[in-house]
Amino acid sequence: MSEKESEIRYRFIPFRKADIVQMCLQENQLAGLEDDFKRLCDMLGSVFHFEFHKVVEALKNCYAPIDPDADTR
User: Fold this and answer.
1) Distances (CA, A) of 20 to 17, 23, 40, 62
2) Cβ burial 2-31 (10 Å sphere, 16+ → b, else e)
3) Backbone torsions φ then ψ of 28, nearest 5 degrees
4) pLDDT score of 7 more than 70
5) Residue range 17-39, pLDDT digits in tens
6) Distance linking the first and last C-alpha atoms of the chain
7) What pTM did the predictor assign?
């Protein structure tokens, strides 16, 4: 793996979701809409959560037939 590939592979956002929401609110561009913005962020978080859950469940279902440690039928 080249240095450039390694650099791209391990990038991350060093902030929690709550930190990012707070930083956005501190910009003071949402005067009077803070609660709506927080609600929007919660809804987006829920959407991503459930989308990821569907992916994880699909992966589990694909792996189940070949799982050497399976104790279910």
Assistant:
1) 5, 5, 13, 35
2) eeeeeeeeeeeeeeeeeeebeeeeeeeeee
3) 60, 30
4) no
5) 999 999 999 998 988 999 999 99
6) 40
7) 0.64
Once rounded to an integer, what is the mean pLDDT over residues 4-26?
83
pLDDT digits (tens, 9 = 90+) for 54-64: 999 999 999 99
Q: Are 6 and 12 within 8 A, CB to CB? A: no
Closest alpha carbon to 25 in 40, 46, 47, 14 = 40
Instruction: Supply the angle between the helices 34-63 and 17-26 in degrees, to the nearest 10.
Output: 160
